[in-house]
Design goal:
Elements lengths: L4 H17 L12 H8 L3 H13 L3 E4 L3 E4 L12 H14 L12 H8 L3 H9 L5 E4 L3 E4 L3
Antiparallel strand pairs: 1-2, 3-4
């Protein structure tokens, strides 16, 4: 029996990895929902998410908005996936560095990023937080590109 959430997370990751390797979940098929896995393993949702995030980092599964977490085909497994917030932040950072978003320019809001990228609000929030070194937040106004 596990004694910590860390042990639970690792155990679930290993169990799901074994289920993937056994072919229980075919490439392109969806994994069970977080709610189903929470019930199956008897743990908190965050513990299940941590296990699923690990599998995604290993390139074994991919998250597709509206479809859930899908099993990657063996050829797709080589490259770990980058979290969505990092891709969004990298795209915005690139626009800032290229001058497309000049100093003083208002960045898109969380809501705008949610609509543009089809992500959860928390993902949009993480993307904006990852840009704190090149942006400044003004209460009730938004986040702006810092002067260089």
């Amino acid at each position: 029996m596990r004694s910590t959430a860390w042990g639970a997370y690792k155990g679930i990751t290993e169990a799901l990895r074994a289920r993937l390797a056994s072919g229980e979940f075919q490439p392109g098929s969806a994994l069970p929902s977080e709610a189903v896995l929470v019930t199956e393993y008897g743990v908190a949702r965050n513990t299940v998410r941590r296990a699923l995030d690990q599998l995604a980092e290993e390139g074994l599964i991919a998250t597709q908005p509206g479809r859930g977490r899908l099993v990657n085909a063996p050829g797709e497994r080589g490259a770990p996936t980058q979290p969505q917030y990092q891709r969004i932040a990298a795209e915005l950072r690139s626009q800032i560095e290229a001058g497309e978003l000049a100093a003083g320019t208002l960045l898109p809001s969380e809501s705008a990023l949610v609509k543009q990228y089809g992500v959860a609000r928390g993902t949009a929030r993480q993307a904006l937080a990852a840009l704190q070194d090149v942006t400044v937040s003004v209460q009730d106004k938004g986040r702006f590109v810092k002067p260089r």
